[in-house]
Amino acid sequence: MRFDKCYLIRKFPNFAPAMNTQIGADLRAAKQFLEAGLPIGIPTETVYGLAANALSPAAVARIFEVKNRPTFDPLIVHVPDAEAAQRYTTQWPEAAQRLADAFWPGPLTLLLDKHEVVPDLVTSGLPRVGLRVPAHPLTRKLLQAIDFPLAAPSANPFGYISPTSAQHVYDQLQGRIPYILDGGPCSIGVESTIIGFENGQTLVYRLGGLSLEQLEQVAGPLTLQLHQSSNPAAPGMLSTHYAPRKSLYLGNIDELRLRFPLLRAGLLTLRPLPQVPPNTLAIYLSAGGDLNEAAQQLFAAMRLLDQSDVDIILAEAMPENGLGRAMNDRLKRAAV
Ligand code: TXA
Ligand code: MG
User: Fold this and answer.
1) Which of 168, 122, 173 is nearest to 148 (CA)?
2) Is 0.90 surpassed by the pTM of this model?
């Protein structure tokens, strides 16, 4: 149907056209859609976000609608700098300042007591708000050009793998959002590390793009309190998440192959396999076993295997250091 002519409304009583989704790098267009209360895709250094005006409950409600996300799963609020972050919290401990100085802009989200200007819908009624200063240059410019913060979950349908390119966002949300701001592939590739402060301790709630080793250098000893579906502090981190549609098994690849000898398997490994077994599609994440490079490629590789002709995905666990920990966390949540 074309809209270059005027139609009689009586002819289309139930007609709701899909949105025309554009991809581009036009900050003015991005700003206009956001000001009109429409969610758009935005690049960050971790994953692409589905952003809307965090101070408008109506705009935030549209994020939940577009993603099919239950409203008990809170959203992170993105701000241009630490000074802006302080407007949305009633708590700014010295530890927050130290971490902000060291890691913002960057892949770190701080959970702090929520200021009342932040709508309850953003935090799913929880007492704290997640605040983050993203590092992607285009999104930094966007945040500086608008006069409100951006609530933004990852721009994937609820439960699916997070997007690390504008094309990933388009593949799944086209027709549901008007615009995707294209900032190229994400440089980190896994979501931000989420931390908070309780009883003088620094707690890590979600492993992510800032490694524990880096965090520890500034924050001192850390306590891991990783989100489970049973953890009321973070109802969003359901144990099944980041999941491809095909069944993914995590473990020793040779053993897993013996379990499913008749199926065509997609193999996901850190380094190239010396020999690719028959009836498999093997994808490795980094020729030299570099965990940063591997993290950057992880979600794209999972998507590729999900869309390929394989029957199942067999993934090997990563080394438990650096970004390997966050990758293992995502693989575990993706696994059956
Ligand atoms: O890197 C990232 O953090 C990306 C980019 C777009 O910034 N965002 C992201 O958002 O991963 P999302 O919605 O996919 O995951 C955010 C998670 C929630 O599921 C929840 O577990 C936790 O952060 N969270 C956010 N706000 C919270 C709050 N007020 N209280 C407890 N947990 C919260
Ligand atoms: Mg997400």
Assistant:
1) 122
2) yes
Structural fold of domain 248-334? Rossmann fold (3.40.50)
| Contact (Cβ atoms closer than 8 angstroms) between residue 288 and residue 274 | no
C-alpha–C-alpha distance, residues 97 and 292, integer Å: 26
Domain ranges of the chain: 5-189, 248-334
How many whole angstroms from 260 Cα to the centroid of ligand 1?
36
> Tens digits of per-residue pLDDT, 211-268?
999 999 999 999 999 976 444 455 445 566 778 999 999 999 999 999 999 999 999 9
Q: Which of 73, 139, 69, 149 is nearest to 105 (CA)?
A: 139
Cβ–ligand 1 contact at 49 (below 6 Å): yes
Does any ligand 1 atom lie closer than 6 A to the CB of residue 234?
yes
How many Cα atoms within 13 Å fall on the side-chain side of residue 272?
4
User: In this structure, which ligand is nearest to the CA of 105?
Assistant: 1
CA of 8 to the centre of ligand 2 (A): 42
Where does 5-189 sit in CATH, by number?
A: 3.90.870.10
pLDDT in tens, 169-222: 999 999 999 999 999 999 999 999 999 999 999 999 999 999 999 999 999 999
Q: List, as one string, the DSSP characters of 24-38.
A: E--HHHHHHHHHTT-
Q: Is 227 near ligand 1, meaning CB less than 6 Å away?
A: yes
> What whole-number distance in Å separates Cα of residue 133 and Cα of residue 140?
8
